[in-house]
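Q: May I have one protein plus its fold?
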Amino acid sequence: MIKLYQKRIWNDENTVNVIAEACLHQKTKICVAAVKFFIVANYDDNSSESDSDGSSEDEAQKIINQKGHVGSKMTRKKKTNLKKAMKMLERKDKRRSKVTYNKDFLPIDVIRNPQDFGDRLFTRLKRSNERFEVKLAIMKLLA
C-alpha cells in the first residue's frame, strides 16, 4: 500500500488510515515500514517516478525508438508490438494526468482520529521490547 501511495495510484484517506493501522501491527518489519512512511516528509516527484514500474515503459520506449530503425524490415509482428507500446504509453500518460496530488497535505494530516492513533502508538511504545532503532522511529513519529 505504501508503494501504491507513492506511485499515486491509491492516494486517498483510506489508504493512509490502513497504513496508520499498520504502525500498530505486532510484526516489527510491518510496523517499521509504516512508521518510516509517515516520518518521511519529503515526497519528491523524482523518487516516486523512479520507483514506478519502468521495465514495461523501457521496453515500450525501445520499441518506439526502433520505429525509425532502417536496418530491418517492419514486419507485422513489429507493427503490432509498436501499436501496443504506443497505446500503453498513451494510457499511462492519461492516468497520470487524471491523478491529482496535493503536496500541501502530508499523509499524517489525513488520519481520521489522530489523537486516538497517537495514544495507541504511545501505548505500543511503552509495552514494546523492540530494538532501540524501532523505539526511536516510533518516538519520531509521535513527536
User: Anything to note?
Assistant: Residues 71 and 79 are 15 Å apart (CA to CA). Confidence is low (pLDDT under 50) at residues 42-52. The longest helix spans residues 76-98.
